[in-house]
Amino acid sequence: MPTSIALIAHDSQKADMMALAQKYQTTLSRYHTIATANTGKQVQAATGLPIELIKSQRDGGDIQITARVIAGEIACVLWLCDPDQLQTIAASLLNLLRICQIYNVPLATNLSTANALLQSLQKSRVAHLIFNPVAGQGNPDADLALIRQILEPQIQLNVIFTKPDLNPTDQAKAAIASIQRRRSLISDTNFVIASGGDGTISAVANALIGTGIPLGIIPRGTANAFSVALGIPTGVKQACETILTGNTCIVDAARCNSFPMILLAGIGFEAETVERADREMKNLLGPLAYLIAGAQQLLEQKLFAVEVEIDGSVTEFHCGAMTIANAAPPTSVLAQGLGEVIPNDGLLDVTIAVSKNESLTLSDRLLAIDVIGKLFTSALVKTPIENEVLACFRTNKIKVTATPPQKVVVDGEIIGTTPVEIVCIPDGLTLFAPLLNSLVIPNHKMA
Ligand SMILES: Nc1ncnc2c1ncn2[C@@H]1O[C@H](COP(=O)(O)OP(=O)(O)OP(=O)(O)O)[C@@H](O)[C@H]1O
Questions:
Q1: What is the C-alpha separation between 104 and 120, in angstroms, rounded?
Q2: With a 6 A CB cut-off, is 221 part of the ligand 1 pocket?
Q3: What are phi and psi of 120, to 5 degrees?
Q4: pLDDT digits (tens, 9 = 90+) for 28-77
């Protein structure tokens, strides 16, 4: 996609060019701006924008712009011409016009056409793509090239790479601030895309909760639970196409202590399993890492006591695993006690694997394998499971205290240990989703 705007103004038109640049400063700031020497210096002084200065028109600046149009770099040319000089510059203007005709690049020669062009650029869709270059086991360069190839013809992409020492939530907050600055000018055309594993997507989603700004998801992690749970395609190409269609759905979000939660919190078994499946294991085995880690953990899992507080009343359980889900893929079997986790019902789905015993015997562990199998089936057929080792219910707010304190995993990351308080945030997040997704409300479409 062309990323530059070219400016030229005759002396009598320079004041208009300054005013135009000031009016559309935010739009120009999204592009690389090139300008003939004197015009460029004045625009730079008036707006503070970085401008690439080329030769003045007298010394061939217009020819340099013509060459950049041929090179495919220019999104539009604004040449504010002095009507009295049109005869003198006719040959130069004709050259530029000819090349703009051939390469189908808009060329404005007076103020009203320049205004119209900048207005349409102002309305064009801009996406801040927060891209984790080390997520998953794929080739990040090839993935990014494919994303650019599919999205850039229709969307201006601002690519922001995640860094090991930076929280993607902060990167997303900076993107949101720039979107909100633009919102006073034009709404609904700017959004954020997160591309990486569940860790990156969850961190970016955190910043977007409650903003109404849509989130596009291009999953490139190991499990991609976030996409699977919300019915978003897991292939890079299909995920990009979903964003291009512009259909959105609204789902609940949640908070676990101060941490955002889109999917689920796992206490006990699930947290220990996630901790076992470290980066090295995931690189080596991919999704199988979680299965192997789960099997190992099943042999070692110890029971713990939990106090569950809902609306001021406290219930106690002896358990080995507890899952509190806002949304969950069918593969998160420990969240599936109610058969289906509904991501837009304003409620959290709680599944507790309870035990009457003080500690887990071998037969308890074998029973646990049987129950996991049943939970998996229950998720596939979307039917609640009835089993005396499971306690399942829905609530919008829950407090959990464990003895001894247990590790807690939220959306794939260990966040600390119990106690936790989890609160559902109804309709907290807007996502791009395929039209066939049951969560999409028809006609809820971005411009
Ligand atoms: N530029 C970077 N260089 C090195 N590490 C990074 C960089 N950006 C992010 N990270 C690390 O990536 C991790 C988050 O990865 P993310 O969850 O997106 O992918 P993943 O771990 O491959 O996914 P999954 O959990 O599905 O395997 C964090 O630990 C973060 O510190």
A1: 16
A2: yes
A3: -70, -35
A4: 877 889 999 999 999 999 999 999 999 999 999 999 999 999 999 898 99
Using the 3D structure, point to which of 74, 90, 122 is the last residue of a domain.
122
User: Among 130, 131, 132, which residue has the most ligand 1 atoms within 8 Å of its CB, making it the best to mutate?
Assistant: 132
Q: What is the CATH number of the domain that holds 70?
A: 3.40.50.1380
* Host H or E run for residue 42: helix 37-47
Q: What is the CATH number of the domain that holds 284?
A: 2.60.200.40
Distances (CA, A) of 445 to 130, 191, 231, 242: 22, 13, 17, 12
99 and 234 housed in the same domain: no
Burial label, 162 (beta-carbon count in 10 A; 0-12, 13-18, 19+): buried
Q: What tokens does 101 get?
A: 């005709």
The residue written with tokens 């609204």 in the block is 250
Same domain? For 280 and 416 the reply is: yes
Q: What is the ipTM of this complex?
A: 0.95
- Provide the CATH number for the domain around residue 229: 3.40.50.10330
Residues 73 and 147 reside in one and the same domain: no
Question: Which domain, by its residues, includes 181?
Answer: 125-252+430-445
The H-or-E segment that residue 76 falls in is: strand 74-80
Residues 6+ apart with CB under 8 A from 414: 271, 274, 275, 407, 408
Q: Could you read off the pLDDT of 274-323 as tens digits, one per residue?
A: 777 776 776 766 666 666 766 666 666 677 888 999 999 999 988 878 89
- Give 250 Cα–ligand 1 centroid separation in angstroms: 26
Global pTM? Answer: 0.69
Which atom of ligand 1 lies at the shortest distance from residue 135's CA?
Answer: 22
Which residue CA neighbors atom 29 of ligand 1 most closely? 164
Structure token pair of residue 290: 């979680």
Boundary (domain end) residue, out of 122, 153, 170:
122
From CA 142, how far away is CA 303, in angstroms rounded? Answer: 46
Q: Angle at the Cα of 33 (from 29 to 37), degrees rounded to 5?
A: 135
